[in-house]
Write a structure and sequence with these properties.
Layout lengths: L13 H15 L11 H8 L3 H13 L3 E4 L3 E4 L11 H31 L2 H19 L5 H15 L2 H9 L1 H16 L2 H20 L2 H20 L3 H16 L6
Antiparallel strand pairs: 1-2
Helix pairs in contact: 1-3, 2-3, 4-6, 4-8, 4-9, 4-10, 4-11, 5-6, 5-9, 6-7, 6-8, 8-11, 9-10
């Protein structure tokens, strides 16, 4: 097995990044059933992390059924199969609540973006671009950018020039904030998710600046569709760690809870 991995960049938890990189190799077939992983020391050197980080990442993938240890031999890729979700009921409720909140955002944000594209002024565009730069800076500094993400969408809402939409978003802020914290935390764990979000935001901004009403509506809707997909693809460990805790304000208001 000759896989060579890139060094891990600072940001999301190092063990999560290592686990995601190894899992991607398995799911893509570049690491096949029966392949033996490099030694713990070799992986630590390749990823540029400590052996403790590698050990934690491998342990997580063992719990997901992707890897298996053979005493005295090493760690091997297990036979392909359906990956266990291992969701407990609180995690299921949290996941569904976040998805439902993003579905609500999808209906609102698509129309807000369309109106912003129709009504934006040069000052509005400047504020939207300043908000997206602040979001990029927050992520570059190691944060998940949840607060800055909300400010970015608020800047777009202000450009829509509809006080009722703004009032509705403000009323929902407590719930939107909780859902955004979950989606941003999940996206920060994977470099591919983070890149997708940045590209989707860029498409929304470009359409608004160009006055492309259908394009802005489609870009905002696509962003929310993808946010739901990323939540659906979040690994169970995310919900067992921070996801469920971040989503608790949403699930607390569900009927029967």
């Amino acid at each position: 097995m000759t896989a060579r991995f890139q060094s891990i960049a600072p940001g999301a938890r190092l063990a999560d990044q290592v686990a995601d990189a190894l899992a991607a190799e398995v799911r893509s077939g570049r690491l096949s059933e029966g392949d033996r992983l490099p030694t713990e020391t070799a992986l630590a050197e390749q990823f540029g992390v400590s052996r403790t980080v590698v050990r934690e990442a491998v342990s997580r993938l063992k719990s997901l059924g992707l890897l298996d240890s053979r005493q005295g031999s090493g760690v091997y890729v297990r036979a392909a199969g359906v990956e266990p979700l291992r969701f407990e009921m609180p995690h299921v409720a949290s996941r569904e609540a976040v998805i439902q909140m993003v579905e609500l955002r999808r209906a609102l944000e698509a129309e807000v973006a369309a109106l912003a594209a129709e009504r934006r002024t040069p000052d509005d565009v400047q504020r939207i671009r300043a908000a997206i730069e602040a979001l990029h800076a927050a992520v570059a500094a190691g944060g998940n950018g949840a607060e800055e993400d909300l400010r970015f969408h608020r800047a777009i809402a202000e450009a829509a020039r509809n006080p009722f939409l703004i009032g509705t978003l403000q009323y929902l802020r407590q719930f939107l904030h909780g859902a955004t914290r979950v989606t941003r935390a999940n996206e920060a764990r994977r470099a591919d998710f983070a890149r997708e979000v940045a590209e989707e935001h860029a498409h929304i901004v470009q359409a608004i600046e160009a006055g492309d009403v259908p394009g802005a509506r489609a870009a905002a809707r696509n962003h929310m569709d993808n946010a739901i997909r990323r939540i659906e693809q979040a690994d169970p460990a995310f919900w067992q760690q921070e996801g469920e805790a971040l989503a608790r304000p949403l699930t607390a208001g569900l009927p029967g809870r």
